[in-house]
Write a structure and sequence with these properties.
The complex is a heterodimer of chains A (280) and B (330). Chain A is mainly alpha-helical and 280 residues long. Chain A is 68% helix and 0% strand. Chain A is globular and about 70 Å long. The chains are: A mainly alpha (280), B mainly alpha (330). At the A-B interface, helix 1, helix 3, helix 4, helix 5 and helix 7 of A face helix 1, helix 3, helix 5, helix 6 and helix 7 of B.
Chain lengths: 280, 330
């Protein structure tokens, strides 16, 4: 807002923002501090909020061998999560951008019908197909591929690519075509490099959703060797007696990759979220 | 819904290269279809995936909801008609939990939609100023959005822990000079849903805030300058400049939040299973679907729950499109 601001106002603004931000950050702060405390001090009331001494014992214990009866090692869960996210994000970028290009920029009869189908399928949230998918693929429970496959093709990603591609001036493709490039080369050599912003924001949004994915693993995974991090988080915290220090250290390690991605690519992320919503 | 622009707007350059023929209509037909093979090949993997993992399962859910299908049962699935639906709404044993789940979802939405949208708007306005380090503050409020819900549930399980040593109980004890003892926020039927609401809003509000912030930043600054010349108070500015300008975005955010609030599952499931959350006060429709399918192996019944869930979400989405659309077009 273009209002003239006195120094007093500015100080007041900062004070209000700081207090709010502090209150808002308390749960996250609690997580980070708690992960550095001995387990018996985590649930220790207000006076125990600040740890008396910091130690990385919980992290060492979690990384070394998880204190849980799930017979799994931390890196195993991490590996599953990383692999699934990698497949869903890269696979999704390729097939969804390709489909959006084919449906938006190429001329063929029936493309409007296919695109309308994609928009209709966008209306169906994953939650409403989880039960039949669980039934259909029950024989493939506890495999890695069935955890990733349903999330590669994504109607909303196609839609995001579509809104970007349709603004590209046709002259660029015409020039490529006159130079003898077919649709595939035009797409991979010209369109993809100039569409980095939309690739970045789709990638980050997909990663964020996939990393925290919970409903599908609950239904499909019981074997610890293919269990992704969020599901192990819920198993770990449900064990009696809970080892809170280690659980919180595990939580920090679970959120760290997304925090890092977020810190580095914040601009793309916020842009992607905001533009898809404001224009949608 | 967005539609693709008609085919004839494209390829003016090709017309020259084609031939000396005048831009006649017959030549348009073959060119309008020139990329058929490539178009099909490019869209096939994603569209095929969507059909296999969204379209077919969805149709299958509708079919299954009319059959008596159980996982691992030796009996052949039998046609059941609308029996599953009848049971969901009228059978004394089944309709109790299901209707409760519907009611819980409605309560959740009725509180979260205004609360979260209002809070997001307040934060967006606070953060829409030119101050140093404002980006840092924005990141702070956005940060919980990247937290997986499984982790959020665990953090709040500790904050709301029932013993005197729980963070909230302990804080209230200090504020009330030692008159607050132990209270089971998650386990008490009266506060269980409130607890779920608080942790969900904490996690989600940054998302709505970012969308609203983008809306606020599109308001031209001249509007505020003009209103200042008219000696409008800050409240009047908010009422007559800010609100009308972002009405469309605000409605969009409210509708988005209401759809999301019907999909609530993770936090409820985790906290009921391991955190002593009161089950009856917080079960949601998706929780019912999962427990019916997974714990009771009753696929037919769970499919019926899923279909009801889908009808609610679609109704909300259609309302959303109707309300948002006229605004986007002016």
């Amino acid at each position: 807002m273009a209002m003239t601001r006195t120094p007093v106002r500015r100080v007041l603004d900062y004070a209000v923002l700081s207090v709010l931000a502090f209150v808002f950050a308390l749960p996250a702060l609690y997580l980070f501090l708690g992960s550095l405390k001995p387990s018996d001090e985590v649930l220790n009331g207000l006076s125990g909020f600040l740890p008396t001494r910091l130690s990385f014992d919980n992290y060492a214990a979690v990384l070394d061998s998880l204190n849980s009866d799930s017979t799994g090692y931390f890196w195993q869960f991490m590996g599953v999560s990383v692999l699934l996210s990698f497949v869903v994000v890269t696979g999704g970028l390729i097939v969804n951008s390709m489909a959006a290009y084919g449906l938006t920029r190429l001329k063929w009869r029936g493309r409007n019908a296919v695109f309308t189908l994609v928009l209709l399928l966008m209306l169906i949230p994953f939650e409403s197909v989880a039960v039949p998918l669980f039934y259909m693929y029950n024989g493939q429970r506890n495999t890695l591929y069935i955890q990733a496959l349903p999330f590669v093709a994504n109607a909303f990603a196609i839609y995001q690519f579509h809104t970007f591609f349709k603004k590209i001036p046709p002259s660029i493709e015409e020039a490529a075509r006159l130079d003898g490039a077919g649709p595939w080369r035009t797409f991979f050599a010209i369109i993809v490099p100039m569409s980095r912003p939309v690739f970045a924001s789709v990638a980050i949004l997909t990663f964020l959703i996939q990393w925290g994915s919970f409903l599908w693993p609950v239904l499909m995974v019981s074997d610890p060797s293919v269990r992704p991090l969020p599901l192990e988080m819920s198993v770990f915290q449900g064990q009696q007696p809970p080892d809170w220090g280690q659980i919180l250290a595990f939580g920090v390690l679970l959120v760290l990759p997304v925090l890092v991605v977020f810190a580095f690519f914040q601009r793309w992320f916020v842009q992607g979220v905001a533009s898809s919503a404001v224009k949608g | 819904m967005k539609t693709v622009e008609p085919a004839h707007t494209a390829a003016p350059g090709r017309a020259q290269a084609a031939s000396s023929a005048p831009p006649a209509k017959p030549s348009r037909r073959p060119r309008g279809n020139r990329d058929l093979l490539h178009g099909l090949l490019m869209s096939a993997p994603a569209v095929g995936g969507l059909i296999a993992f969204v379209g077919i399962p969805f149709g299958y859910a509708v079919v299954l909801s009319f059959y008596n299908v159980r996982l691992g049962s030796p009996l052949e699935p039998a046609f059941f008609g609308v029996e599953h639906y009848r049971r969901l709404f009228t059978d004394p044993d089944l309709s109790g939990p299901f209707l409760r789940a519907l009611l819980n979802n409605l309560t959740f939405a009725a509180v979260v939609v205004p609360l979260q949208t209002g809070l997001a708007l307040a934060l967006a306005i606070l953060l829409n100023r030119k101050l140093k380090a404002i980006g840092l503050f924005r990141s702070f409020f956005f940060m919980p959005v990247v937290f997986p819900m499984a982790l959020v549930a665990v953090i709040w399980r500790l904050i709301l822990a029932r013993s005197e040593q729980g963070m909230l109980n302990s804080a209230l004890d200090v504020v009330s000079f030692g008159n607050w003892g132990a209270f089971d926020w998650l386990g008490d039927g009266l506060t269980a849903m409130g607890s779920i609401i608080v942790l969900s809003v904490w996690q989600g509000v940054g998302f709505q805030m970012v969308i609203l912030l983008a809306g606020l930043q599109q308001i031209p600054g001249e509007l505020y300058e003009a209103s200042q010349l008219d000696r409008a108070s800050r409240w009047q500015q908010f009422r007559h400049v800010t609100l009308p300008s972002i009405r469309g975005t605000l409605v969009f955010v409210a509708m988005l939040t209401s759809v999301l609030s019907f999909r609530v599952f993770d936090q409820v499931y985790i906290l009921i299973r391991g955190g002593g959350l009161d089950e009856d006060a917080t079960r949601t429709v998706m929780y019912q679907a999962v427990t019916t399918a997974f714990d009771q192996n009753n696929i037919g019944q769970a499919s019926a729950v899923t279909v009801v869930f889908f009808l609610i979400v679609v109704a909300l989405t259609i309302v959303q499109r109707r309300v948002v659309r006229p605004d986007n077009e002016d």
